[in-house]
Amino acid sequence: MKRWLFIAFASATAAAWGCVSTVDLGSHAPPLEGGSLLDVSLPSPGEGATERAKIFFVTDGRYTGDLAGLAGADAICMQEATAGGLTGVFKAWLSTSTEDAKDRIAPVGPWQMVDGRVVFSGATVGNPESFPTYSAKGNDLLFDPNPNVWTGTTGPGRLNDGSKTCSSWTSAGPTDTGTYGSLAWTSDLWTDERKLDATSETSPCSERLRLYCFEQ
User: Fold this and answer.
1) What is the pLDDT of residue 98?
2) Topology (CATH) of 54-215
3) So what's the pLDDT on residue 137?
4) Where in the chain are the domains?
5) Closest Cα to residue 159, out of 127, 205, 191, 120?
6) What sign for the dihedral angle of Cα 149, 150, 155, 156?
7) pLDDT at position 162
8) Is the backbone peptide bond immediately before 107 cis, with ω within 30 degrees of 0?
9) Which residues contact 167 (CB under 8 A, 6 or more apart)?
10) What is the block-wise mean pLDDT of the chain (216 residues), using blocks of 10 residues?
11) SS3 track for the chain
């Protein structure tokens, strides 16, 4: 009887704290080695999901517009994923005059952040359902003083302005410019701040901004 009462009390306490399952733990969950919150999954197949969601993150590092092209940007995503203890293949959310971001990211969603929250619930990328703020190491960057992220991409995932992609992400010149989004939004502005002011929402390519990275 005493054992049953103890179990009931422990279960009620866990429910009150909101830490009932791996996904529910969120920020209560202890970080694993390397500072990442790994192996957080969607419900098992018997509960309506077929497999765990892919991982999405925003880079801890900031970079000039000279990313060594799309391949260099993808390499940055892979480096930060590895540093955060993540496995898999990651690609950057960027557009150029020859390739739209929506065509670079395979329809393999949903995507979740390392804290367990689903950020893009569909198979393809749309507007985020949660602020897209977590890095691969589990750092929440929502209140970072510079929330801007290089994208060159509109809300539908297409090239924003062909002349404003830091020469296809190969230029750090202060007279070249690139368009960006902000991790402080869940509307189209997450990828396209020009929706606020199409005449001015660009940044010199010499400035250092973050990148969005999607697991493939």
Assistant:
1) 95
2) Mannose-Binding Protein A; Chain A (3.10.100)
3) 97
4) 54-215
5) 191
6) negative
7) 87
8) no
9) 65, 173, 176, 205
10) 34 35 29 35 36 92 98 98 97 97 97 97 96 98 95 96 94 97 96 84 95 98
11) CHHHHHHHHHHHHHHHHCCCCHHHHHHHCCCCCCCCCCCCCCCCHHHCCCCCCEEEEECCCCECCECCHHHHHHHHHHHHHHHCCCCCCEEECCCECCECHHHHCCCCCCEECCCCCEEECCCCCCCCCCCCCECCCCCECCCCCCCEEECCECCCCCECCCCCEHHHHECCCCCCEEEEEECCCCCHHHCCHHHCCCCCCEEECCCCEECEEEEC
pLDDT, position 201: 81
Overall size of the chain counted in residues: 216
Residue appearing with tokens 């970072």: 144
